[in-house]
Design goal:
Number of helices: 11
Number of strands: 16
Shape: globular
Largest sheet: 6 strands, antiparallel
CATH topology of the largest domain: Dna Topoisomerase Vi A Subunit, Chain: A, domain 2
CATH class of the largest domain: Alpha Beta
Length: 347
């Protein structure tokens, strides 16, 4: 963050002392009535809100676009993008906008914006599920992506009938429970870290709520399911891809909670100590001009000196599970051998 003087002679701390970050945000985006929230992205076509605005644990506003892993930052970054201007220009634009808000003849009572930091949201919200029996169509779905029954059990994946959200009011302490019927294809992923159990809900065909999670950035999917050490480990894009790789290729695989997430250096050092070869295998988002999967994999591989691979665009599949579904097991194994053989450690 820039902390020096700007063209207005005010510093950033002085600006935020004059106008709070929340006040500035909700003046520019009047549709926001609470923080955290998700809105439609102001920078691209976004039919289902995937633009997250939240407060970090230091009470500063942050944003992240889940449709574009590179679109994230502070309030000032957001406004620079919205107004397509430099830092100095956005500073002046804020003052101009806030002056107009204050300068009218009619005084409008400010709306109350409820704000919670990420830590507070995590502490005050619980996700629970109602588990149902496995059905034939569940096994058929996962099998079509190369994940067999035994791997679903091993990875602690369960079919669910309902999602249950419990929210505790920060001020009164009262708890409200919200029960939602899950879609036909709906599954809970269980992860355990430091003695705590966390859930992620996955509805693969949902147009509105494909994911719902209590995992934070420190949780790696399948971390507790891989061997303590070995020849090779693959860092994939999703739990489904990692299960596909583990089931079909018998290579341990784990993933972060999204390609845009960044691992702690000590975690990468630990993985490189445990495995002779760590390989990055993210999505090839070949239909996207920005190709965030490729860009993120290159950054990760370069930063930690890892090998990286991807599925060539000529196959028309962006990830391993899609490749399996499109080509079937025999051709999938041939293609994956072509991709991985040059980088795998062989004892």
């Amino acid at each position: 963050m820039v902390i020096g003087k700007t063209s207005t002679s005010l510093s950033v701390p002085e600006l935020f002392e004059k106008y709070s970050e929340v006040k500035i945000l909700t003046t520019v985006f009047p549709e926001i009535i609470s923080i955290p929230c998700k809105i439609n992205s102001p920078f691209r076509i976004d039919k289902h809100p995937s633009f997250s605005i939240y407060m970090d644990d230091d009470n500063h506003i942050r944003f992240k676009d889940f449709g574009d892993s590179e679109c994230k930052g502070s309030l000032l970054d957001l406004l620079c993008m919205k107004w397509n201007c430099s830092f100095n220009q956005v500073f002046d634009k804020i003052l101009e906008t806030m002056a107009k808000e204050e300068g009218g003849d009619v005084t409008i009572k400010s709306k109350t914006i409820r704000t919670l930091t990420r830590k507070e949201v995590d502490e005050l919200t619980q996700i629970q599920v109602a588990v149902r029996p496995w059905k034939d169509y569940d096994y058929e779905y996962w099998s079509s992506y190369g994940v067999e029954k035994q791997w679903l059990k091993y990875a602690e994946i369960y079919p669910i009938s309902h999602k249950i959200i419990k929210k505790q009011d920060k001020d009164t302490g009262k708890i409200k429970k919200y029960i939602f019927p899950a879609e036909k294809y709906a599954y809970a992923f269980v992860e355990r870290k430091d003695g705590n159990l966390s859930l992620k809900i996955y509805q693969p065909y949902s147009k509105n709520f494909k994911w719902c999670s209590k995992f934070d950035a420190s949780v790696w999917s399948l971390w507790t399911k891989v061997p303590e050490n070995g020849d090779n480990l693959i860092i994939g894009s999703s739990t489904k891809d990692c299960l596909n790789i583990s089931c079909q290729l018998h290579i341990p695989a784990i993933c972060m909670q999204g390609e845009g997430y960044w691992p702690k250096p000590q975690v990468m050092k630990e993985l490189k100590r445990r495995y002779k070869k760590v390989i990055v295998f993210f999505d090839n988002d070949y239909t996207s001009e920005k190709n965030p999967g490729r860009n993120d994999s290159i950054k990760l591989a370069n930063e930690f000196h890892l090998d990286r691979v991807e599925i060539p665009a000529s196959y028309g599949a962006k990830d391993p599970s899609d490749l399996f579904k499109k080509y079937g097991k025999e051709r999938y194994l041939e293609i994956m051998k072509e991709i991985l053989d040059p980088v795998l450690h062989k004892s």
